[in-house]
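Predict structure. Input: 3-deoxy-D-manno-octulosonic acid transferase, 408 residues.
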Amino acid sequence: MYRTGILFYSLFVRVASPFNSKASLFVKGRRNWQKKLAQKIENNARYLWFHCASLGEFEQGRPLIEAVKQQYPEYRILLTFFSPSGYEIRKNYELADIVMYLPLDTNRNARKFIRLVQPEKAFFIKYEYWHFFIGELKKQNIPLYIVSAIFRENQRFFKKDNWSKWYRKMLFHCSHFFVQDERSGELLQSIGLNNFTVSGDTRFDRVATIAHSAKEIPVVEKFKGKQPLLVAGSTWKPDEELLAEFINNHPELKVVFAPHEVTSANMNRLEQLLKNPHIRFSKAGENEIDRFQVLIIDSVGLLSSLYQYGTLAYIGGGFGVGIHNILEAATFGLPVIFGPNYERFKEAVELKKLGGAMPVNNFSELEHTLNDFLSKSGRLEGASDVCKNYVEKNVGSTNLILKKVFNK
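Output follows.
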């Protein structure tokens, strides 16, 4: 069943590739992978293999990669991605010696890939479990570490049907799990696995680093002036429609939009929602920028630095499959607001309980929440302190992992 599923997935992506840009990148990126990898591998070099599903997982693995490069420079880094949205943005990541797509998970691909690389250790970030690659690592006695793992009761690993029992076997091939919370450890224990450490989430180390190295953006500083600023990060259409309704009736609030999609069509759609003065970042200069209410970021790579200028943040995705990274805003002490689909995100659940985050289901709730934050300075300051302290208390996962893996 697993082999058949991989085969059908491969066929589906190939059929879709002429009509879908992501599918096209998925197919082209894996073409002649063996030849490309063989050309890049250095003979007698010592490799560590880091695998991430996409960009979010890369940000979780990044602190570990950077710490390894600093403390263990004798190793070369191989970084693989499953998704084009991760690879295409990070294919030139300077701290990785080789960046490539993970070949599809077949017995043949796994065997050839691992024999070519011969990594001394492998690190899979958070969610990725590929049967043949994990099995081949086990066969060749290469330790596999799962980093920032998080488990839930409804996952396939913990069900009792035969398919789940087969799927669960992959976990027994992993050398060690670095899990985010106690509950994940309890679930592993429930199936007879005790090789785990509750190490927290490496993303806290990443966002703490970002906060200390955020780049200055003078245009945004001039745009904000002395008014409150809402930073709307990684927003989608449902988020933007709610926010636009509020913005159009509250000219006193400055807003920076950093949409998830920065295509021209999406920028045009967003601009049509806004009735008050707005300008795109690519057209903005420091002169007279303060007369606009809304600044639209039409490029990538600025969001994490934008939060330093914010008063509070709205994080997109909550009206879709799930919210984007809220920790990048929280580390700057910004209270965070997001849509209703946040329950799978541990940090969102915890910050809500602590009072640093507020989910909203509709415009009425959004309006009430924004007015509450903006009209009550004590409420805003309290939520800001909660967010900042939450990040500070959770840093340190990377060092814990390094000590365990390298026996230092």
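DSSP finds 19 helices and 14 strands in the chain.
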